[in-house]
Amino acid sequence: MKINKFLTYTVASALTLATGGMITGCTDNFEDLNTNKYEVDPNNLPFESQFVEPITYVYAPQQNMFQYWTNLSIDLFGGYFMTPHNFGGNGNVDYKLNRGFCGGMYENFNLHIFNNTRRLIATCDEKGLVDYAAIMRVVQVYALSNMTDTYGPVAYQSVLDGNDVAFYYDSQESIYNSMFTLLDEAITGFKNGTSDVANMQQFDYWCQGNRELWIKVANQFKLRLAMRIVKANPTLAKQKAEEAVAGGVLTAADKDILIDQGLSNELTRMFEWGDCGVNANLVTIMEGYNDPRIALYITKNANDIKDGDNVLIAKDSKYLGIRGGCNLPNKPNQWGNFSSVVCTYSTPMPVMKAAESYFLRAEGALRGWSMGGNAKDLYEEGIRLSIQNELKYKGIYAGVTSISDAEIDAYINGTTLQEDFVDPVDPQNSIKAMNTVPVKWDESASNEDKLQRIITQKWIANFPLSTEAWAEYRRTGYPKLFPNRVNSSNGTIDTDEQIRRLIYSEVEINTNNEELQKGIQILNQENSSSKFTGDIGGTRVWWDKANVGNF
After folding, report:
1. 405: number of Cβ within 10 Å
2. Is the preceding omega at residue 464 within 30 degrees of 0, hence cis?
3. How far apart are CA 87 and CA 470, in angstroms?
4. Sign of the Cα pseudo-torsion (227, 231, 232, 233, in order)
5. How many Cβ atoms from other residues are within 10 Å of residue 68's Cβ?
6. Residues 93-109 pLDDT 10s
């Protein structure tokens, strides 16, 4: 794999941004769409415009890339979404992992983000544009964390070094160390930046040139990553978490970080194609808790649910989710008529929620770290802020005009539990509720029960960011997610442990296989599973420690 092929700017992606998407069928011609047929020198583009692609592809605004990036894989495993069929047995739903369907995160990171961030960081450092470089460092961390959390070891430093023969793999532990360094460098860059705000606003779709807000975003990423490694390196986790909070993270005074520049939110298209549905975990938890956000997130059933000509559930009368791993038949089928998502092509694309910082700090306080508050107060403030911000964000799309303080208080003090899942089409898919804690805080509860509350509410608040939801489920085990009824992994994924990583991209096998095999050896060295090893879904990444409790 030659460096010039690996790091070239694509005309196709630039056209996608300009036109709002390519017209093509779902999952068709993916390799063609993401192969550079025409290479151009990115330096021939206006300078500020070169930043747009990496800063937007953290939430891919192109239909095919969006589907392969997360929707055919990670979206299924984080508990938010579920495919209402299984691509004729070739999808990932039943754990018979499709390597092509698992490669989208790799493609999106390398082609659209890392391709650009590593070049722009170097260019901006040379030009003395320290705040421009800082933005790209944060974007690189965002995408790199998703990448390594998905696969484990990946090629990183060798790409930065400009190797033109092959790309060696870094351990996930070393990648995390690199990300902490990048964030510290970014924070310094923002503090010392003097670039014209109007020029920054031409491409800064996250913070609109607000360097103080960028510092908070960088610190919140640091806090997130610190919490991720709490089982792998608890000393470093505490250090970095306390640094982040002392430096300032997002608060109720700040906005959620949303991309709202008229790009196409392709989550809508996934439902229109009939390739995405709402997960039963999300529905049963939110309904059981009487969560006032449910109407902001999802719709009731999109069409009648029938048994032959007999209407079982009339259109738009019930929230209905789909359980994963149930060997569902090809589309169209009755599960395709279940709940849909509240989203349009013009809905802003979420990057980071301010409420997340409160739940991260609540967990840190539970661990005895200095987080600027106690666990209960931070937990409750996180819930309140999430509901208020979601109303601002999604109310216009859901037709919800208000949620009163009394309703929020009732939710925070709620004592109801997750509902059982009942599949109205096929009863064998039904399953009892798995989560046993209510929303209401209980100071006398165990730390484990308190953590389940915190992570479950963070999971609800972070919707629809499946990469974060899946990572935190793997780290903590919360919220408890329904296991697959059907496991077609041929022994490579444990049904109860559920899937722990995606398998490497087919592109990497074809172009960088010698180094990939060495990378798999590093994966095995960092893997703590006693059951699984190698490039399979049951192997654990470095921070996902088997047989290590949360406390």
Report:
1. 10
2. yes
3. 22
4. positive
5. 24
6. 999 999 999 999 999 99
Find the angle CA(231)-CA(217)-CA(295) to the nearest 5 degrees.
90
- Token digits for 463? 């919707």
- CB 46: neighbour CB atoms within 10 A? 9
- Bridge-based pairing state of the strands 39-40 and 9-10: antiparallel
Tell me which residue of 484, 480, 499 sits closest to 429, measured CA to CA.
484
The SS3 call for residue 373 is coil
On whether the CB atoms of residues 378 and 406 are closer than 8 A, the answer is: no
Q: Which two tokens mark 7?
A: 């790091």
Which of 389, 439, 400 shows the shortest CA–CA distance to 416?
439
Distance CA 412, CA 221 (A): 26
| Of 260, 164, 171, 166, residue with least CA distance to 208 | 260
Q: What is the DSSP string of 5-45?
A: HHT-EEHHHHHHHHHT-----TTSSHHHHTS-SSEE-GGGS
Residue 64, amino acid: N
Please state, in angstroms and rounded to a whole number, the distance separating the CA atoms of residues 52 and 67: 20
Q: Name the nearest CA neighbour of 325 among 6, 83, 36.
A: 83
CA–CA distance, 203 with 191 (Å, rounded to integer):
19
Q: What angle do CA 507, 511, 516 make, to 5 degrees?
A: 85
**How far apart, in whole angstroms, are the C-alpha atoms of residue 500 and residue 528?**
11
Tens digits of residue pLDDT in 431-453 = 999 999 999 999 999 999 999 99
Work out the widest C-alpha separation in the chain, in whole angstroms. Answer: 69
Q: Express each pLDDT in 207-235 by its tens digit.
A: 999 999 999 999 999 999 999 999 999 99
Residues 351/59, Cβ–Cβ less than 8 Å: yes
Q: Record the pTM.
A: 0.93
Q: In this structure, are residues 137 and 183 in contact, taking their beta carbons and an 8 Å threshold? A: yes
Q: What angle do CA 520, 481, 223 make, to 5 degrees?
A: 65
Work out the pLDDT band at 26, boundaries 50, 70, 90: low
Confidence of residue 40 (pLDDT cuts 50, 70, 90): low
Q: Which of 50, 30, 31, 32 is nearest to 40 (CA)?
A: 50
Would you state the structure tokens that stand for residue 35, as one six-digit string? 């192969």
Question: Which among 92, 95, 76 has a CA at the least distance from the CA of 496?
Answer: 95
pLDDT score at 166 = 87
Are 426 and 436 in contact by the 8 Å Cβ rule? The answer is: no
Residue 350 neighbours by CB under 8 Å, 6+ apart: 59, 256, 257, 258, 259, 393, 464, 465
- Kindly report the length of the chain: 551
